[in-house]
């Protein structure tokens, strides 16, 4: 041990700053989750906070705003999965079938760019183009039509969210799938074509099986994050659309607990609920992936 | 001579011989789809840029917030941004946060990626597990907020950088690169020559990893540049806010939403309202567009190798 330490201490020293960061900003807050089981008050010493078991979770599930927030989260999460995933794959397949490398690189650059934009930027651009005072509304007025109202209409928020995901994130999915497509051995296509397989049959029997590991990997990651739909897209449109439609778990915790009146233990319980469900789902999804003979995100070793 | 060269060079764009030509209808639908999708992304961005250079009169005659075809050219909005007021301060702050944060992130990431790249070194496995566990669980919003408060970092700019300083994903990607793409023979040779780990890292490993290091640094930089939520959460009380927060306040004022007016008065100005707002948007886009070609060139490979081998 001492000898290995004498040998390896520089490696440990290099790892130390990152470990310190993880300890302070990941593991320490993780440990603070214990206050979900306490009647926590910042005004008394930590050990004097009484343990209350699952009382805060009971209070959470009985909160009239919690269930709608949970259902919204699941709704947007599944909508994102069912819409963005196929769209990314379709974009990648179309791009892959384009023969001209010039067209490919131009289109890739364009579609992928908004992925790096912040949500503030994306929502601003949407308000300016599709909002009631925006570009399209002005055209419609010019043609004698009505202003668009769907940037502030709760009933069509799902459609708006689709547009925003398609605008911002589809290019990212496309790049991932394109890379997966590029790793398929081209001689497979050639052999199939020589044997008389049509374009569609080649796609079905070579392309899709070829990108299956990537699809499974992304699915697992997505399932683990099923209760994490992001904060910004919903918070930024909360005032325009209304909180009933845009309340997701993260905004619920922020508005009810961090700046609201529900207190630390309540917000922590809500976050812990989210974290534990996420943990369980990742483990299950990975297990299922292993059973289906896929690699998943970690090996069993 | 050149003619022969061109002939010998295989044309990448050519359709392979075994692949049949698609029907004109298929080609047409495909082209239409690509053009429409591309236009839906490019046109709004173009309108933003065009509007940021518009004068009051041309904006008024276009009757809206955005115009597609600029009729004149005014840089009033940009003068406003760079006149040393609240917007200038915000931009300088955001640049500072981005530079400082990225530097710190790189130190943490490189150190840990190299420190954990030697399987079988002391504590290698448990430390790696500590990193990997962050993929499975999230500590939650409130506990993180509480820790920032306990550290006395609430309403301190450090609270924007420190909590997001390390991305376990980038760490794993870089570690995979160090393990798979830096030849072991070189490392062994360096050790034979008596070079320590620090020397090996700086003289051999880092110079061989320039491209991936640049990509990871750019990813961190984009993350810091786009910071919005941590600013809302951790520094609500500070006067100078990151540029995204400023943009959000200006946006709220457009929508005529309650509570926005008080925040926005400090950005009222001589430049046309819409032009000023769009000029801020352009300022937040420019750094990304400058970095973008580089990210695009090197990034895909890095992420995919990381995701698959990690």
TrEMBL record, chain A:
It is found in: Cell membrane. Signal peptide: none annotated. The chain crosses the membrane at residues 9-28, 78-99, 111-131, 170-189, 210-231, 264-285. GO terms for molecular function: ATP binding. It is a multi-pass membrane protein. Keywords: ATP-binding, Cell membrane, Membrane, Nucleotide-binding, Transmembrane, Transmembrane helix, Transport. Belongs to the binding-protein-dependent transport system permease family. This is Polysaccharide ABC transporter ATP-binding protein. It comes from Glycomyces algeriensis. The lineage of its organism: Bacteria, Bacillati, Actinomycetota, Actinomycetes, Glycomycetales.
UniProtKB/TrEMBL annotation, chain B:
Pfam families: BPD_transp_1. GO terms for biological process: transmembrane transport. Its main location: membrane. The chain crosses the membrane at residues 31-54, 91-115, 127-145, 157-178, 211-235, 274-295. One of its GO terms (cellular component) is plasma membrane. Residues 91-291 form the ABC transmembrane type-1 domain. Keywords: Cell membrane, Membrane, Transmembrane, Transmembrane helix, Transport. It is found in: Cell membrane. Signal peptide: none annotated. It is a multi-pass membrane protein. Belongs to the binding-protein-dependent transport system permease family. This is ABC transporter permease. It comes from Glycomyces algeriensis.
